[in-house]
Amino acid sequence: MSTSALPSNRFERRRAETRRALVRAARQVLAETGDTSVSIQAIAERADVGFGSFYNHFDSKAELFEAAVVDALEEFGQNFDERLAGIDDPAELVAAGFRLSARMADSRPELMQVLRRRGLGHIHSDNGLVRRALRDLQVGIASGRFTTLDPAVALSALGGTLLSLVELRFARPEVDGDEAAVNLAEMVLRMLGLPADDAHEVARRPLPDLD
């Protein structure tokens, strides 16, 4: 789960931990069933906090679940930043991101289930993952690596394809996730304007150590 600096005041630290516990509980619900009709009481019990504490942090369940999705997307983006920090080529970043996402379906299933269930509605939201993706697309366009002229349209294609890959990993676990990710990455790179041979090579470059 994404984290931020802890408040120095003891009361504020406890308050922040209560909020994190509620967000964790909401993420678990989204990952397990996606059923947002679950009661506030059930969420509070799962978080091991008092029922009354809920309204000290959120006005509604909808607000809590929105916070849970944003938290998951931020964690997803942080994973990309940490694991792919040594890659400068925006095309290689796209390809490695697809391959990392496929592997995270196994290594971080809760996180990826949240992305699977709620990610589509956030493709154009102002969250940390989207900002990172737009940054990489804009760098690729400015450098001439990508020929796509509209970053928002490119983001739609990139995000939709990535979510389709995540869906494939959970709906068809017998499919080779790494191979599927490589093939989809190659398709996306060609769509972004890379020549076929270049897209094929970039999609298959050795990955950084992801363990």
Automatic annotation (TrEMBL):
Keywords: DNA-binding. Residues 39-58 bind DNA. PROSITE patterns: HTH_TETR_2 (PS50977). Coiled coil: none annotated. Residues 16-76 form the HTH tetR-type domain. InterPro entries: Homeodomain-like_sf, HTH-type_TetR-like_transc_reg, HTH_TetR, Tet_transcr_reg_TetR-rel_C_sf, TetR_C_40. Pfam families: TetR_C_40 (PF21306), TetR_N (PF00440). SUPFAM superfamilies: Homeodomain-like, Tetracyclin repressor-like, C-terminal domain. This is TetR/AcrR family transcriptional regulator. It comes from Streptomyces venetus.
